[in-house]
Protein backbone atom coordinates (compact mmCIF):
# COMPACT_ATOMS: atom_id res chain seq x y z
CA UNK A 1 0.00 0.00 0.00
CA UNK A 2 2.83 2.39 0.80
CA UNK A 3 4.44 1.74 -2.56
CA UNK A 4 1.19 2.41 -4.39
CA UNK A 5 0.58 5.57 -2.40
CA UNK A 6 4.13 6.83 -3.08
CA UNK A 7 3.35 6.84 -6.77
CA UNK A 8 -0.10 8.44 -6.55
CA UNK A 9 1.22 11.77 -7.77
CA UNK A 10 1.45 10.10 -11.19
CA UNK A 11 -2.06 8.66 -10.97
CA UNK A 12 -4.38 8.64 -13.95
CA UNK A 13 -6.64 11.17 -12.26
CA UNK A 14 -3.83 13.68 -11.89
CA UNK A 15 -2.28 13.14 -15.33
CA UNK A 16 -5.61 13.51 -17.13
CA UNK A 17 -6.42 16.66 -15.22
CA UNK A 18 -3.07 18.37 -15.63
CA UNK A 19 -3.50 19.21 -19.31
CA UNK A 20 -6.92 20.72 -18.74
CA UNK A 21 -5.73 22.60 -15.67
CA UNK A 22 -2.80 24.04 -17.59
CA UNK A 23 -5.07 25.26 -20.38
CA UNK A 24 -7.42 26.83 -17.85
CA UNK A 25 -4.56 28.63 -16.14
CA UNK A 26 -3.29 30.04 -19.43
CA UNK A 27 -6.75 31.32 -20.32
CA UNK A 28 -7.12 32.98 -16.91
CA UNK A 29 -3.71 34.65 -17.22
CA UNK A 30 -4.70 36.09 -20.57
CA UNK A 31 -8.22 37.17 -19.65
CA UNK A 32 -8.28 38.18 -15.98
CA UNK A 33 -5.22 39.29 -14.04
CA UNK A 34 -7.38 39.76 -10.92
CA UNK A 35 -8.91 36.28 -11.06
CA UNK A 36 -7.63 35.25 -7.64
CA UNK A 37 -9.22 38.26 -5.97
CA UNK A 38 -12.50 37.79 -7.84
CA UNK A 39 -12.60 34.10 -6.99
CA UNK A 40 -11.90 34.84 -3.32
CA UNK A 41 -15.20 36.72 -3.01
CA UNK A 42 -16.87 33.30 -3.18
CA UNK A 43 -14.55 31.92 -0.50
CA UNK A 44 -15.29 34.16 2.48
CA UNK A 45 -18.24 36.16 1.20
CA UNK A 46 -19.04 39.70 2.24
CA UNK A 47 -16.29 41.45 4.16
CA UNK A 48 -17.21 41.84 7.82
CA UNK A 49 -18.30 44.87 9.80
CA UNK A 50 -17.10 45.38 13.38
CA UNK A 51 -18.93 42.94 15.65
CA UNK A 52 -20.00 40.56 12.88
CA UNK A 53 -18.96 36.90 13.18
CA UNK A 54 -15.79 35.97 11.30
CA UNK A 55 -15.32 32.64 9.60
CA UNK A 56 -13.55 29.98 11.67
CA UNK A 57 -10.62 27.88 10.48
CA UNK A 58 -9.53 24.89 12.54
CA UNK A 59 -5.75 25.28 12.98
CA UNK A 60 -4.10 22.09 11.66
CA UNK A 61 -7.51 20.43 11.79
CA UNK A 62 -9.35 20.14 15.08
CA UNK A 63 -6.47 19.69 17.52
CA UNK A 64 -8.80 19.30 20.47
CA UNK A 65 -9.95 15.90 19.23
CA UNK A 66 -6.97 14.39 17.35
CA UNK A 67 -3.26 14.92 16.65
CA UNK A 68 -2.63 18.00 14.53
CA UNK A 69 -2.33 17.77 10.74
CA UNK A 70 -3.48 14.16 10.67
CA UNK A 71 -6.49 12.79 8.82
CA UNK A 72 -8.48 12.27 12.08
CA UNK A 73 -7.97 15.94 13.03
CA UNK A 74 -8.79 17.12 9.52
CA UNK A 75 -11.85 14.88 9.36
CA UNK A 76 -13.07 16.22 12.71
CA UNK A 77 -12.85 19.75 11.34
CA UNK A 78 -14.63 18.77 8.14
CA UNK A 79 -17.39 17.06 10.13
CA UNK A 80 -17.95 20.10 12.34
CA UNK A 81 -19.98 23.23 11.66
CA UNK A 82 -16.91 25.38 10.98
CA UNK A 83 -16.40 26.68 7.46
CA UNK A 84 -12.64 26.20 6.97
CA UNK A 85 -9.92 23.75 7.86
CA UNK A 86 -6.30 24.95 7.92
CA UNK A 87 -3.30 22.68 7.27
CA UNK A 88 0.41 22.89 6.50
CA UNK A 89 2.19 21.45 3.48
CA UNK A 90 5.87 20.57 3.17
CA UNK A 91 8.04 18.70 0.67
CA UNK A 92 9.90 15.44 1.21
CA UNK A 93 13.36 14.63 -0.11
CA UNK A 94 11.79 12.96 -3.14
CA UNK A 95 9.42 15.85 -3.84
CA UNK A 96 6.18 14.57 -2.33
CA UNK A 97 3.77 17.00 -0.66
CA UNK A 98 3.03 15.99 2.94
CA UNK A 99 0.85 17.48 5.67
CA UNK A 100 3.02 18.47 8.64
CA UNK A 101 3.81 21.76 10.36
CA UNK A 102 7.32 21.54 11.81
CA UNK A 103 10.46 21.37 9.73
CA UNK A 104 11.62 18.61 12.07
CA UNK A 105 9.95 15.35 13.01
CA UNK A 106 10.60 15.11 16.75
CA UNK A 107 7.59 16.98 18.18
CA UNK A 108 4.75 15.20 16.37
CA UNK A 109 6.22 11.82 15.38
CA UNK A 110 8.53 9.13 16.73
CA UNK A 111 11.08 10.06 14.07
CA UNK A 112 13.99 12.49 14.05
CA UNK A 113 15.60 14.89 11.60
CA UNK A 114 14.26 17.18 8.91
CA UNK A 115 11.13 16.47 6.89
CA UNK A 116 12.98 17.73 3.80
CA UNK A 117 15.70 15.11 4.29
CA UNK A 118 13.32 12.13 4.51
CA UNK A 119 11.64 10.30 1.64
CA UNK A 120 7.91 9.73 1.52
CA UNK A 121 8.46 6.01 2.09
CA UNK A 122 10.52 6.75 5.20
CA UNK A 123 7.88 9.10 6.60
CA UNK A 124 5.25 6.39 6.19
CA UNK A 125 7.02 4.25 8.79
CA UNK A 126 6.59 6.91 11.50
CA UNK A 127 3.94 7.11 14.20
CA UNK A 128 2.33 10.57 14.18
CA UNK A 129 -0.33 9.87 16.82
CA UNK A 130 1.08 8.26 19.96
CA UNK A 131 2.46 11.56 21.26
CA UNK A 132 -1.12 12.85 21.44
CA UNK A 133 -2.90 9.82 22.87
CA UNK A 134 -2.53 6.05 22.80
CA UNK A 135 -5.82 5.80 20.90
CA UNK A 136 -4.07 7.40 17.91
CA UNK A 137 -1.04 5.09 17.90
CA UNK A 138 -0.07 4.23 14.34
CA UNK A 139 -1.61 7.34 12.79
CA UNK A 140 0.53 8.40 9.83
CA UNK A 141 1.70 11.68 8.35
CA UNK A 142 -0.76 12.32 5.51
CA UNK A 143 0.20 12.83 1.91
CA UNK A 144 -1.55 15.77 0.23
CA UNK A 145 -3.50 13.18 -1.76
CA UNK A 146 -4.84 11.74 1.51
CA UNK A 147 -6.14 15.17 2.45
CA UNK A 148 -7.71 15.65 -0.98
CA UNK A 149 -9.48 12.29 -0.68
CA UNK A 150 -11.38 13.34 2.47
CA UNK A 151 -11.72 16.99 1.46
CA UNK A 152 -13.23 16.12 -1.92
CA UNK A 153 -16.32 14.50 -0.39
CA UNK A 154 -16.94 17.37 2.03
CA UNK A 155 -18.52 20.75 1.44
CA UNK A 156 -16.00 22.70 3.50
CA UNK A 157 -13.17 25.01 2.46
CA UNK A 158 -9.45 24.74 3.09
CA UNK A 159 -6.64 27.16 3.84
CA UNK A 160 -3.38 25.47 2.87
CA UNK A 161 -0.19 27.03 4.16
CA UNK A 162 2.84 26.24 2.02
CA UNK A 163 5.89 25.94 4.26
CA UNK A 164 9.23 26.97 2.80
CA UNK A 165 10.01 27.87 -0.80
CA UNK A 166 8.03 26.07 -3.50
CA UNK A 167 9.13 26.40 -7.12
CA UNK A 168 6.66 26.44 -10.00
CA UNK A 169 7.69 22.87 -10.88
CA UNK A 170 7.09 21.74 -7.30
CA UNK A 171 3.70 23.43 -7.18
CA UNK A 172 2.44 21.95 -10.45
CA UNK A 173 1.67 18.41 -9.14
CA UNK A 174 -0.21 19.89 -6.19
CA UNK A 175 -2.22 22.18 -8.47
CA UNK A 176 -2.95 19.31 -10.85
CA UNK A 177 -4.26 17.18 -7.97
CA UNK A 178 -6.53 20.01 -6.85
CA UNK A 179 -8.04 20.32 -10.32
CA UNK A 180 -8.23 16.56 -10.76
CA UNK A 181 -10.37 16.32 -7.64
CA UNK A 182 -12.48 19.33 -8.65
CA UNK A 183 -11.87 21.20 -5.38
CA UNK A 184 -10.28 24.32 -6.87
CA UNK A 185 -13.29 26.45 -5.87
CA UNK A 186 -12.89 25.59 -2.18
CA UNK A 187 -9.17 26.02 -1.54
CA UNK A 188 -6.94 28.99 -0.66
CA UNK A 189 -3.14 29.02 -0.50
CA UNK A 190 -1.19 30.98 2.10
CA UNK A 191 2.51 31.56 2.69
CA UNK A 192 5.03 33.68 4.56
CA UNK A 193 7.59 33.11 1.81
CA UNK A 194 8.14 35.77 -0.85
CA UNK A 195 9.39 33.24 -3.41
CA UNK A 196 6.45 30.90 -2.93
CA UNK A 197 3.92 33.73 -3.25
CA UNK A 198 5.52 34.86 -6.51
CA UNK A 199 5.58 31.32 -7.89
CA UNK A 200 1.91 30.83 -7.01
CA UNK A 201 1.06 33.69 -9.35
CA UNK A 202 2.52 31.70 -12.23
CA UNK A 203 1.52 28.19 -11.13
CA UNK A 204 -2.02 28.96 -9.95
CA UNK A 205 -3.10 32.47 -10.98
CA UNK A 206 -6.81 31.81 -10.46
CA UNK A 207 -6.54 30.28 -6.98
CA UNK A 208 -6.84 32.78 -4.10
CA UNK A 209 -3.67 33.66 -2.20
CA UNK A 210 -3.25 34.94 1.34
CA UNK A 211 -0.09 36.75 2.43
CA UNK A 212 1.04 35.77 5.93
CA UNK A 213 2.92 38.40 7.93
CA UNK A 214 3.92 38.46 11.59
CA UNK A 215 4.49 42.19 11.23
CA UNK A 216 2.35 44.27 8.89
CA UNK A 217 4.03 46.77 6.58
CA UNK A 218 2.96 50.40 6.56
CA UNK A 219 0.67 49.71 3.59
CA UNK A 220 -0.86 46.20 3.78
CA UNK A 221 -3.13 46.99 0.82
CA UNK A 222 -0.11 47.52 -1.39
CA UNK A 223 1.40 44.30 -0.02
CA UNK A 224 -1.68 42.30 -1.00
CA UNK A 225 -1.85 43.90 -4.44
CA UNK A 226 1.84 43.22 -5.05
CA UNK A 227 1.32 39.48 -4.62
CA UNK A 228 -2.10 39.42 -6.26
CA UNK A 229 -3.49 38.26 -2.91
CA UNK A 230 -7.09 38.46 -1.78
CA UNK A 231 -6.26 38.85 1.92
CA UNK A 232 -3.55 39.31 4.51
CA UNK A 233 -3.28 37.23 7.67
CA UNK A 234 -1.45 38.55 10.70
CA UNK A 235 -1.38 38.63 14.52
CA UNK A 236 -3.97 40.24 16.76
CA UNK A 237 -1.29 42.56 18.17
CA UNK A 238 -0.80 44.12 14.73
CA UNK A 239 -4.47 45.03 14.38
CA UNK A 240 -4.69 46.17 18.00
CA UNK A 241 -1.84 48.61 17.32
CA UNK A 242 -3.31 49.82 14.02
CA UNK A 243 -7.05 49.05 13.86
CA UNK A 244 -7.41 51.37 10.87
CA UNK A 245 -5.79 48.73 8.63
CA UNK A 246 -9.01 46.69 8.71
CA UNK A 247 -11.02 49.54 7.18
CA UNK A 248 -8.25 50.20 4.66
CA UNK A 249 -8.19 46.56 3.54
CA UNK A 250 -11.97 46.39 3.28
CA UNK A 251 -12.11 49.65 1.32
CA UNK A 252 -9.81 47.98 -1.20
CA UNK A 253 -12.03 44.88 -1.34
CA UNK A 254 -9.47 42.79 0.54
CA UNK A 255 -9.86 40.50 3.55
CA UNK A 256 -7.90 40.47 6.79
CA UNK A 257 -7.53 37.42 9.04
CA UNK A 258 -5.86 36.69 12.36
CA UNK A 259 -3.93 33.72 13.75
CA UNK A 260 -3.96 31.87 16.23
CA UNK A 261 -6.58 33.01 18.79
CA UNK A 262 -7.68 30.61 21.52
CA UNK A 263 -9.63 32.54 24.14
CA UNK A 264 -13.00 34.30 24.38
CA UNK A 265 -11.23 37.53 25.25
CA UNK A 266 -9.17 37.44 22.07
CA UNK A 267 -12.10 36.34 19.92
CA UNK A 268 -14.20 39.21 21.23
CA UNK A 269 -11.44 41.72 20.59
CA UNK A 270 -10.84 40.40 17.05
CA UNK A 271 -14.52 40.67 16.15
CA UNK A 272 -14.67 44.22 17.47
CA UNK A 273 -12.23 45.23 14.72
CA UNK A 274 -14.29 43.57 11.98
CA UNK A 275 -11.74 40.96 10.87
CA UNK A 276 -12.95 38.41 8.35
CA UNK A 277 -11.44 35.18 9.64
CA UNK A 278 -9.97 33.66 12.80
CA UNK A 279 -7.57 30.72 12.91
CA UNK A 280 -7.91 28.84 16.19
CA UNK A 281 -6.81 25.69 18.00
CA UNK A 282 -10.28 25.64 19.62
CA UNK A 283 -12.62 25.69 16.61
CA UNK A 284 -15.53 23.93 18.29
CA UNK A 285 -15.32 26.21 21.33
CA UNK A 286 -15.18 29.31 19.11
CA UNK A 287 -18.14 28.07 17.10
CA UNK A 288 -20.14 27.52 20.30
CA UNK A 289 -19.11 30.96 21.60
CA UNK A 290 -20.18 32.68 18.38
CA UNK A 291 -23.53 30.95 18.55
CA UNK A 292 -24.00 31.88 22.19
CA UNK A 293 -23.07 35.53 21.69
CA UNK A 294 -24.92 36.11 18.42
CA UNK A 295 -27.44 38.99 18.48
CA UNK A 296 -30.85 37.83 19.62
CA UNK A 297 -29.61 34.75 21.50
Mind sketching the topology for me?
Layout (H helix, E strand, L loop, with lengths): L1 H5 L5 H20 L3 H10 L10 E5 L11 H9 L4 E8 L5 E3 L20 H4 L20 H9 L4 E6 L5 H14 L5 E5 L2 H10 L5 E4 L7 H7 L4 E5 H6 L2 H8 L3 E5 L4 H10 L3 E4 L2 H11 L4
Parallel strand pairs: 1-2, 1-9, 2-4, 4-5, 5-6, 6-7, 7-8, 8-9
Antiparallel strand pairs: 2-3
Helix pairs in contact: 2-7, 4-6, 6-7, 7-8
Structure description:
- This protein is of the alpha/beta class and 297 residues long.
- The chain has a single domain (2-293), classed as TIM Barrel (Alpha-Beta Barrel).
- 41% of the residues lie in helices and 15% in strands.
- It has 13 helices and 9 strands.
- The chain has helices spanning 2-6, 12-31, 35-44, 71-79, 120-123, 144-152, 168-181, 194-203, 220-226, 236-241, 244-251, 264-273, 283-293, and strands at residues 55-59, 84-91, 97-99, 157-162, 187-191, 209-212, 231-235, 255-259, 277-280.
- Strands 1-2-4-5-6-7-8-9 form an 8-stranded parallel barrel, surrounded by 6 helices.
- β6, α9 and β7 form a beta-alpha-beta unit.
- α2 packs across α7 (168-181).
- It starts with a helix and ends with a helix.
* Helical residues, percent: 40-55%
The chain-level structural class is: alpha/beta
Tally the helices. Answer: 13
Q: What is the fold named in CATH at topology level? A: TIM Barrel
CATH homologous superfamily (4th level) name: Phosphatidylinositol (PI) phosphodiesterase
Which overall shape is indicated by the principal axes computed on the Cα atoms?
A: globular
CATH class: Alpha Beta
Mean pLDDT: 88
Q: How would a crystallographer describe the biggest sheet?
A: 8 strands, parallel, barrel
Strand content: 15-25%
Helix and strand sequence: HHHEHEEHHEHEHEHEHHEHEH
How many beta-strand elements? 9
Multimeric organization: single chain
Our Rg estimate from Cα atoms comes to 19 Å
Our count of domains comes out at: 1
Adjacency order of strands in the biggest sheet: 1-2-4-5-6-7-8-9
What's the CATH architecture name? Alpha-Beta Barrel
